[in-house]
């Protein structure tokens, strides 16, 4: 099996045109290996979400290529891309995006049901156990704490047993202690199941749970570090400040 879970090559994403054009990503090359946890950081507007969206096939690059495993995304039709996202990629966002009228269990299997895929019961049992929600399966999201709701969203992202999980500020709406629980859970998903996690975060402490920290600035990779630690990350971020340059 290929050791690369995700690879992007010469990735550029430009929004708008003429005087208003913004180069959100500027000729980026990066690889995320299988079984690793990477934090993507950088000032506001540096291109973090754009990198996540294009690498996950939610947005098409202006130029450059993206691979999920052996599959190159630009060659795929919209329907094949949708299937790849459903089968091989999980998403976790700051907003939990749970359906209030459904139980925890129904929320977890909803994407599979919508896709007409039969859930793998053994795997789901493992996932529910891992996120610690066994006693809450029949509850509604409104009866859960924020951290528990995010754990439901994590279980939902894991349900299809994806190769890669992309997270955009997964702890942004959580208090420090609850955030730590969610980060330990993401860490365990990588360590116990060999899945690949790519997480955008502003929080140096959250990033310290990752194996690797990639720092973006002005749509480019400014730094790429192995477990730099929260203090070093905070120091590097303090030197970058918000995005100031724009394409004209
Ligand atoms: N749909 C869009 N249309 C126009 N410009 C956009 C669009 N999406 C993003 N941008 C611009 O692209 C640049 C990168 O945005 P992106 O959201 O990727 O940054 P980010 O690092 O995730 O920022 P933040 O930390 O504030 O979420 C910014 O200048 C942003 O204004």
From TrEMBL:
GO terms for molecular function: ATP binding; ATP hydrolysis activity; transmembrane transporter activity. InterPro entries: AAA+_ATPase, ABC_transporter-like_ATP-bd, ABC_transporter-like_CS, ABC_transpr_LolD-like, MacB-like_ATP-bd, P-loop_NTPase. Residues 6-243 form the ABC transporter domain. It comes from the Bacteria. SMART domains: AAA (SM00382). Keywords: ATP-binding, Nucleotide-binding, Transport. One of its GO terms (cellular component) is plasma membrane. The keyword ATP-binding applies. This is Putative ABC transport system ATP-binding protein. It comes from Actinoplanes digitatis. The lineage of its organism: Bacteria, Bacillati, Actinomycetota, Actinomycetes, Micromonosporales.
């Amino acid at each position: 099996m290929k050791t690369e879970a995700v690879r992007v090559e010469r990735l550029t994403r430009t929004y708008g045109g003429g005087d208003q054009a913004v180069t959100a990503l500027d000729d980026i090359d990066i690889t995320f290996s299988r079984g690793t946890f990477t934090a993507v950081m950088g000032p506001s507007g540096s291109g973090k979400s754009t990198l996540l969206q294009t690498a996950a096939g939610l947005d098409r690059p202006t130029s450059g290529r993206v691979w999920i495993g052996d599959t190159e995304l630009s060659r795929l039709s919209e329907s094949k891309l949708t299937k790849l996202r459903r089968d091989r990629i999980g998403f976790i966002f700051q907003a939990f995006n749970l359906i209030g009228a459904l139980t925890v269990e129904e929320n977890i299997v909803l994407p599979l049901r919508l896709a007409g895929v039969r859930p793998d019961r053994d795997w789901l049992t493992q996932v529910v156990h891992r996120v610690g929600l066994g006693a809450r399966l029949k509850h509604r999201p409104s009866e859960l704490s924020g951290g528990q709701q995010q754990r439901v969203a994590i279980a939902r992202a894991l349900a299809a047993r994806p190769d890669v999980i992309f997270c955009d500020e997964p702890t942004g709406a959580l208090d420090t202690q609850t955030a730590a629980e969610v980060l330990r859970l993401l860490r365990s998903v990588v360590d116990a199941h060999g899945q690949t996690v790519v997480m955008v975060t502003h929080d140096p402490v959250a990033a310290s749970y990752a194996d690797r920290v990639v720092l973006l600035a002005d749509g480019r990779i400014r730094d790429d570090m192995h477990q730099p630690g929260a203090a070093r990350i905070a120091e590097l971020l303090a030197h970058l400040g918000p995005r100031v340059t724009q394409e004209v």
